[in-house]
Design goal:
single chain; alpha/beta; TIM Barrel; 7-stranded parallel sheet; two-stranded antiparallel sheet; 17 helices; globular
């Protein structure tokens, strides 16, 4: 690839670079004071995500503060259930809430219309791509079908026990719901790529605790079905798959899903990442977001260890989960400086 190609895209193509690209999950907002001020002007969180001007600003804010190699669009994984017709809202200080799960056949009837209802995200991507420097990549994303299904079934974030029980007791209904989410997610990601996203990420945030056969059925197969539909539409943007909490099954995932990159969570071992790289995958992760918040010599040591163990293969520096809201900005700056070698200048909040 050309030296002018964004560093992230070069790593996703399997190139081994003199230093890995860096970006952080949930870097858009969360801990930044300018984000909190912007968020205070939105009617509610869903309205914020559907406001292209505000969402583009949230996406770009961390790019102004830090020399990150990629921006990720400001949105939420629960925009799809809302677009399909399920009631979704966010309780301050408590997180998402969803109304009763609609009839799955009725959800299936809304798949095609759901993409149009998410068009604001496409406009956000177009706005950001127009403002972002060409050497910095833009990432689009969606939630993994199983993770989104857990919220749709349980109505909120939880330990997923009710959703897992549903998977055993109502396998046909769950498979039908996952198919709806595969179809709507694929269309959504196609729209994102055509709107300016240069890489696409699937966040399977709740992949932990699944038996191997269940993991194959409700994580691996739906992810591959999404990739197949996106590729059939002519979209060539590389995929990052993130089966968070999968443990040893992440290697099954890497073999079973044709993503270019596998994102690793905090528990990933050095050897596991190296095996994935040897198998032809770029890897991403797995710095502990709690360590990022804590800071200090332990943070420096872990950053150095991750760079040492994985930089000999295609690698993207990132967290094992998203930035926590109370993470000191100075800790983020310190890690970015350590990885990139570029100083982070202090910036006054707007």
């Amino acid at each position: 690839m050309s030296q002018t190609t964004p560093r992230l895209l070069r790593a996703l193509a399997g190139e081994i670079l003199e230093r890995p690209p860096i970006w952080f999950m949930r870097q858009a907002g969360r801990s930044l004071p300018e984000y909190l001020e912007l968020r205070s002007r939105a009617k509610d969180f869903i309205a914020f995500c559907h406001n292209p001007e505000m969402a583009a600003e949230a996406t770009l804010q961390p790019m102004r503060r830090f020399p990150m190699d990629a921006a990720i669009v400001f949105a939420d994984i629960l925009l799809i259930p809302a677009a399909l017709g399920q009631e979704v809202w966010f309780e301050a200080g408590e997180g998402p809430r969803l109304g009763a799960l609609p009839d799955i056949a009725r959800l299936a009837d809304e798949v095609e219309a759901s993409t149009a209802r998410l068009s604001a995200v496409g406009e956000t991507l177009t706005r950001v791509r127009a403002q972002l420097e060409p050497e910095r990549a833009l990432i689009g994303f969606a939630g993994g079908p199983w993770t989104v299904a857990t919220y749709m079934i349980e109505g909120r974030g939880s330990d997923r026990s009710r959703a897992r029980t549903y998977a055993y007791e109502h396998p046909e209904e769950l498979d039908a719901l996952l198919q709806v989410l595969v179809d709507s997610t694929a269309r959504y990601l196609i729209m994102q790529a055509r709107s300016g996203a240069q890489a696409l990420k699937i966040f399977e945030s709740w992949a932990e605790g699944l038996a191997e056969d269940v993991f194959e059925r409700i994580v691996i197969r739906p992810h591959q079905a999404i990739v197949d539909q996106v590729r059939a539409a002519g979209v060539k943007a590389p995929f990052i798959g993130f089966p968070r909490g999968a443990g040893a099954l992440v290697e099954n995932y890497a073999k079973g899903v044709s993503v270019e990159c596998v994102a690793l969570d905090t528990q990933a071992s050095a050897a596991q990442g190296q095996r994935l790289q040897a198998g032809g995958k770029t890897i991403q992760g797995a710095l502990d977001n709690l360590l990022l918040r804590a800071g200090g010599p332990a943070l420096d040591a872990r950053v150095d260890a991750l760079l040492a163990q994985w930089s000999s293969g295609p690698y993207i520096f990132n967290l094992g989960h998203g930035v926590m809201p109370d993470t000191p900005i100075g800790h983020i700056a310190r890690v970015v400086e350590r990885v990139t070698g570029k100083p982070v200048k202090e910036m006054a909040a707007k």
